[in-house]
Amino acid sequence: MAEQSNLKEFTKGFFLYNPLFVLILGLCPSLAVTTSVKNGMAMGGAATFVLVSSNFIVSLIRPYIPREIRIPCFIVIIASFVTMVELLMKAYLPPELNASLGIFIPLIVVNCIILYRAESFAYKNRLLVSVLDGVGMGLGWALSLCIVSAIREVLGAGTFLGLKVSESYNPASVMIMAPGAFIALGLLLGFFNWQKQRKSEKALKEYRKYD
Length: 211
Fold this sequence. Notes:
By secondary structure, the chain is mostly helical. It has one domain (2-210). The protein contains eight helices and two strands, in the order αααααααββα. The chain has helices at residues 2-11, 27-32, 37-61, 70-92, 95-101, 112-122, 127-157, 178-210; strands spanning 159-160, 163-164. It has a two-stranded antiparallel ribbon. Strand 1 (159-160) and strand 2 form a beta hairpin. Helix 7 (127-157) crosses helix 8.
């Protein structure tokens, strides 16, 4: 039972509670940086590191965090890890990639996904499940960013990870502009809502069948 519970905590961020497609959190960076898959991977990796690390520390020291000042404490913890990841990225990633991500790496400090998991989960749960929650939710958001990025890069630039997909394809440049972000995300949200509605209708039919 414990293994099943741990697996559930890890996998819920991919589908059931996907931060972008289901909970619709972190829209600002999701729309701004997803012009290429490299951007999506870098932003997703940075956020996952901060999410896992902050969940770990919040869960570890939660008995010592007064409830009245928990939000400032969370922000200090998150800001510490954001500073670490920002310095590491500037040291080891190409300058053009850092320039593309711009202000959105420092803004991870106030990313609603990370604050939401610290407040609603890590502050209330034991260490292992808090780390699993952070890994699952972080990877779920990273996967979402990569999906949106792949659609926009392929359609808008005719490339994937910087490689040309076809010599004959004429890119729709609107997809790597601001309207393209809304188009791609809107279609994906519509698809996920349709899937959710389909499952609900199927479950209702099964219930009525045996009622």
